[in-house]
# Entry
Amino acid sequence: MRETWVVGAATNRFGKMAETGREAASRVALAAIDSAGLEPKDIEQTFVSNAFGVAERQAHVGPLINTALGIPEVPSVTIESACSSSSAALHEAFVHVAGGFADAALVVGVEKLSHLDTFASTSYFAMGADYAFESRNGATFPGLYATLASAYRREHGSRPEEFGAVAVKNHANAAMNPNAHFQRPITLDTYLGSPIIASPLRLYDCCPFSDGASAIVVAARERLPRPAAEPLVIRASARAGSVADMHDRETLTGLPATRAAGLKAFRMAKVEPAQIDFLEVHDCFTVAEIMALEDLGFFPKGHAGRATVDGVTAHDGRLPVNPSGGLKAKGHPVSATGAAQVVEIFEQFNGHAGGRQVPKTGLALAHNVGATGGSCSVHIFGRR
Amino acid sequence: MRETWVVGAATNRFGKMAETGREAASRVALAAIDSAGLEPKDIEQTFVSNAFGVAERQAHVGPLINTALGIPEVPSVTIESACSSSSAALHEAFVHVAGGFADAALVVGVEKLSHLDTFASTSYFAMGADYAFESRNGATFPGLYATLASAYRREHGSRPEEFGAVAVKNHANAAMNPNAHFQRPITLDTYLGSPIIASPLRLYDCCPFSDGASAIVVAARERLPRPAAEPLVIRASARAGSVADMHDRETLTGLPATRAAGLKAFRMAKVEPAQIDFLEVHDCFTVAEIMALEDLGFFPKGHAGRATVDGVTAHDGRLPVNPSGGLKAKGHPVSATGAAQVVEIFEQFNGHAGGRQVPKTGLALAHNVGATGGSCSVHIFGRR
# Structure
């Protein structure tokens, strides 16, 4: 297996895009290739994620992006795994490059749903859940994660302030991220005063619907021995699944797929959680960040909320979590999210994260969940 | 790169499915695993294709299929490349297994659109084309392929009987395929008397909308040294793209992506077209089969129609083409099509093709096109 790097990365500002998904994806892909000091003709495979492209009446978007980049002959494929689509695309790119099937590959994730009304966008999102047993019966993600949040609170007796601390921290980080959807801090009082969406989840427990596009370039070390920016060495690229529908799971206070993917990743990278300097985790709802930190082994079960209240996971804390602002405040354009986590880690490694720069950038982890955990990807990145 | 085999394969009868896509996919996947003499727990990665799963309100279908198979922890991903989705999924499975990232992988393609009306299904299909420049302006695939057919006829002066011979041959083959959508032969008179759909294409130039599911199991030779059935050795797995929208192409009498993928595949397998014993090609419209045979180098430009009239490509001819009945008559459930071509080659290699059995099964080629050729996959299979 060849040593494989992330050598370039770019994102647009998450929120509401005026341009189409294909236009945004092409523009951001070009910026990522530029940041790597490469040209489009160096790309040998394109992996696109655009789970709900049909909302723009467009499937098969890879050839359109490659044509815009001037490389129409390059093979492309679209990779879908609900909200973990572009981390799954990164995994495919990793396998192609590490396995010697390509020297350089492009991963680009994009989603645009803002032209739809809230009912229609919610319906698209809900397709990541189990239609027959969940979404057909009216379940959407706020309700499903509210079920997880209720179970978590019941089991661990945690207080609303612990969930609130996640929201306050991630909004504070996003306020220092010029590409974030929400760029203003909130207070705990704002959190506690916000309306209930699906009990116990309040408005500020929930990530927004965002449009957005993010891209990364993956290359073999031997292809680019002197990269234009400090690369991320892919120390682990691991994925796992779990029972998709929640009513058949043995536990509702954690995600089995996170645990399985995390164990695989730590084994592959030959590191322990204590060695990780900072993380981007999948905080589609505040409880998701808390569960992720526990499932990945960073805190004992029931302790991650308290640690958040204590500032351990602040961008200047002992273990910064979601310095980008996370899905919660940076935004969650479904298929761009996994790639965007890697863009943040790339910016942090290169010292370009401005006010949200974390103190140590030796080893970082990205954790991306599909739906309520039917799928999970964990990547670990280190330095040359 | 490890020697990699197709060790199991199964399909259902194409046409109209009463069950849901996830149910059909799970059932067929289990049959494919059975045919390999394996159990679900032997599968290490699942690659699903289901381009228009949203028509059933279901994205993220991999975890549902894996859960039905009793292997929820196994990672899954959905692969989309319009009508070439499941051959693109096979390519990913090949890369994982040949590269040593998995010992055995499942590829399952499924599509169900028959619960929609024709306008809605046509709209889904058309999303494989370029929305901004083609489908938004009313172009659907019969119209786009009619443009290719007009250009072909004009350049080569070919007669309607040449397109008709493709339809007659493929219906004759499908009549001997118990899994085909259409199981009755047609005559040239029936073809010539059928209504014009998009001039010059008649009803019998066009493949049907079909529901269907097909699955194959890919494994490393060393994982399964004594397979339960005669395996297909994957001699080549190649993909290419081209300018997606037709108005920007240099030629309309062939598909650049087919030529590029074909050249890659022949180079990888180290064989010449003359060594191939039979083929499954992408005949979504009759002209597509003719162009494919020329683009792949089996006949000089303008000669494949005449060869079809002369019986060269009949199932008992010198170079059998689409012994399964092809998309034209076996049916075209978008994301199941690429895998179904491999199912046919597996049955032919194992001598299970009944009345449509081809005389020689040493080397076979599968050719699968995305939309009007924005993507193309070519696989070449040989014997141990």
